[in-house]
Design a protein that fits this description.
Layout (H helix, E strand, L loop, with lengths): L1 E4 L13 H4 L3 E4 L8 H5 L4 E4 L6 H6 L5 E4 L9 H6 L4 E2 L6 H17 L1 H9 L23 E5 L3 H12 L3 E5 L5 H4 L3 E2 L2 H7 L2 E4 L13 H5 L5 E5 L8 H10 L2 E6 L19 E3 L8 H19 L10
Parallel strand pairs: 1-2, 1-3, 3-4, 4-5, 6-7, 6-9, 7-8, 9-10, 10-11, 11-12
Helix pairs in contact: 5-7
């Protein structure tokens, strides 16, 4: 059986091993696959593993030997799952590998905004402290989080993990979610979206990207926020209307934003957020600690094994 990995580099740039996956079949791993190379590289492979390389209905129809698709991520919008289902091809994802890493990163962005650690370290190395007439200085307001309110939109696994850390920092946590549960109530007070927008000092997005959540942060919802709110998004880029957020940053309505995702990745030169005030942007790395990527590898191996055993798991298109 042939197994092909179309874009394995970001999952494993060399610090993990494909060896166990290779015991399951004839394995070919490509670091990256240009769109025009997807068809020839899949060829007659039975198992296709992808991260961001798209598997369209045209690709599925052109590769009749393909019987199983595994995604090296939780999100699976790169695969036409309905077309795969119609053709009897199960598609599996990795549902819960990055909860701790993504929550940790959201808080890391928040703490950077509150303390500007990188900036102040840079100025010290440049000699500003050496030449200071005082024993200390700070170039930006320093913000204490204790007693402030964090509003979390989307209170699933990652939202709850983020809420736990915020609570440990002394913050009041409120959450908006379509399916409140008892575990969530132990961490946060559930509120409606308008209440969350108007009450929060920090708003953190952890909801999936659905038609109803696309552009959930826009001119209209920003107007309902407190002046000087901090916005965090390491969920999905299209949750924001990027021009509206940039405008709010430039006007000071939003004090600062910490963003690990944007609408088109890699980020385009004309993205308005690149020139917005107090906008911290990182290159979609919340998910990428080695520990989290090791869980992706382990789960993907388990997914392929289960398919070979005739009982595929983590199937998103049953």
């Amino acid at each position: 059986m042939k197994i092909v990995v179309l874009d394995g580099y970001t999952e494993n740039p060399g610090d993990l091993s494909w060896e166990e996956l290779g015991t399951l079949g004839e394995l070919t791993v490509y670091d990256r696959t240009p769109t025009e190379e997807i068809l020839p590289r899949i060829g007659d492979a039975e198992v296709v593993i992808t991260n961001k390389s798209p598997i369209t209905v045209a690709t599925i129809d052109a590769c009749p030997g393909m019987k199983y698709i595994a995604v090296l991520a939780t999100g699976y919008n790169v695969v036409d799952v309905n077309a795969a289902k119609e053709r009897g091809i199960p598609v599996s994802n990795v549902p819960a590998y990055g909860t701790a890493s993504v929550a940790q990163f959201a808080i890391a962005m928040l703490l950077e905004i509150c303390h500007r650690v990188a900036h102040h370290s840079k100025t010290v190395h440049e000699g500003k402290w050496t030449n200071s007439i005082d024993f200390c200085y700070w170039d930006y307001p320093l913000i204490e989080l204790d007693g402030k309110t964090m509003g979390i939109i989307g209170f699933g696994r990652i939202g709850k993990a983020t809420g736990k850390i915020a609570k440990a920092l002394g913050m009041k946590v409120i959450a908006c979610d379509s399916a409140p549960d008892e575990q969530g109530k132990e961490i946060a007070e559930y509120v409606d979206l308008d209440t969350l927008l108007s009450s929060s000092d920090v708003i953190s997005l952890h909801c999936p990207l659905f038609p109803e959540t696309e552009g959930i942060i826009c001119k209209e919802t920003i107007a309902k926020m407190k002046d000087g709110v901090i916005l965090l998004n390491n969920s999905r880029g299209p949750l924001l209307n990027e021009q509206d957020v940039a405008d709010a940053l430039n006007s000071g309505k939003i004090y600062a934003a910490g963003l690990d995702v944007v609408s088109i990745e890699p980020i385009r030169e004309d993205n308005p957020l690149l020139k917005a005030e107090n906008c911290f942007i990182t290159p979609h790395i919340s998910w990428a600690p080695k520990e989290a990527r090791a869980r992706i590898m382990e789960t993907t191996v388990a997914n392929v094994k289960a398919y070979l055993d005739g009982s595929p798991i983590n199937v998103v298109n049953r």
